[in-house]
Specification:
- The protein is built from no helices and 3 strands.
- By secondary structure, the protein is mainly β.
- The chain is elongated and about 50 Å long.
- The model has no long low-confidence stretch (mean pLDDT 76).
């Protein structure tokens, strides 16, 4: 199994993306995911 990946940050949209390519049983497959956040959201503070 071979796995490659790339990560990118899209700052104007507050988004992080990832692209993972892997080969399984001779077939190349792709997996994409994105995480988007609200820069104005409250943060969690632990005490």
């Amino acid at each position: 199994m071979t796995v490659t990946h790339t990560f990118s940050v899209i700052t104007n949209r507050h988004k992080i993306g990832a692209h993972v390519t892997f080969e399984l049983q001779g077939i190349e497959r792709n997996f994409y995911f994105y995480v988007q956040w609200d820069p104005n959201a409250a943060t969690l503070e632990e005490s």
